[in-house]
Amino acid sequence: MKKPGQLAKKRKHLSLAATFLIYCCYTFAQSKSGLENYSLVGNDHTYSWMPIAHYQAKKGFYTELRYNYEDVKTVSLYCGKTFLVGTKKKIVLIPMIGGSAGTFSGVSAALKTEGDFDRCFASTELQYSWSLSPENPGFMFSWTEAGLNLAKNFFAGVTIQTTLQRGANEFEPGVMLGFTAGRLCVPVYFFKPFSTGNYMMIGLNYELQFLGKRKV
Q1: Which helix (DSSP H) or strand (DSSP E) does residue 78 occupy?
Q2: DSSP string, 4-59
Q3: Nearest-10 Cα torsion for 190, 154, 84, 113
Q4: For 125-161, how does the pLDDT look when each residue is reduced to its tens digit (9 = 90+)?
Q5: Total domains, the chain
C-alpha cells in the first residue's frame, strides 16, 4: 500500500478484505456480498480512503469493485472464482483477473489465500499489475497477515506488505488490532510503527448474505 500521495505506498488489501472474510463461514449454499471502507491517515495528517464492494455467487463466482486501491482516482473491477480446500479446516483460494482505469490504467492478475485454524488465522494476497501507460510502471504487490482470536469478538496479529515497482520498492511491516460485532468487522492497522514514516489504516466492513428460496 502506498502512503498518501505516493504511488508505491497506497495499495491496500484487502485483505482486506481478507481479514474480514476469514470470520465468515464459507459455503456456496447462499450468495453474499460485502461493503468495505478503509481510511488511511499518515503521520503528516494526510488522509485517503479506499471503498471496496464484493459479491460471491452460490457457485463461487467472485467479483470485486475497488476505488483508490491500485492508485488514487483509479477504479478497478476484478472477477474470479472461489475454491475451498479441506473439510473441517478450510483454506480459501480466490484467483482473479481485473482491469483498472484512472491514474493507473492496466490489467492485473491476483490470488487471495485465506485460512482459519481454531483461534489462529492467516491470509495472503499476491497481485501483479501490467501498466498500459509508460508514465506509470507496472508493479507487484503482496499483503500477508497472521493473527490470533484473543476473545470471541477481538483479534490481533502482524502484517507485512511489499511493493516491487521500478524505482519505488517498499517493505512495510505492521501490527493489527480489531473487533467484530455480528457481520460488522473493524480492523485497525499500524504500519512501520517505530519509524518516522508510520501511518494507520482503519477499516469498516459489513457482510451481507442473501437467502435463497426454499424448495417445497
Answers
A1: strand 74-81
A2: TT-GGG-----HIIIIIHHTS---SSSEEEEEEEEEEEETTS-EEEEEEEEEE-TT
A3: 10
A4: 999 999 998 888 999 999 999 999 999 899 999 999 9
A5: 1
- In this structure, is residue 41 part of a structural domain? yes
Distance of CA 43 to the CA centre of its chain: 22
pTM comes to 0.81
Residue 175 belongs to a domain with what CATH number? 2.40.160.40
C-alpha cell of residue 131: 501498466
Is 200's pLDDT higher than 50?
yes
Counting beta carbons within 10 angstroms of the beta carbon of residue 86, is it exposed (0 to 12), middle (13 to 18) or buried (19 or more)? Answer: exposed
The string of pLDDT tens digits covering residues 89-132 is 679 999 999 999 999 999 999 999 999 888 899 999 999 999 99
Domain that holds residue 150: 7-210
Residue 133 one-letter amino acid: S
CB–CB of 205/191 below 8 Å? Answer: no
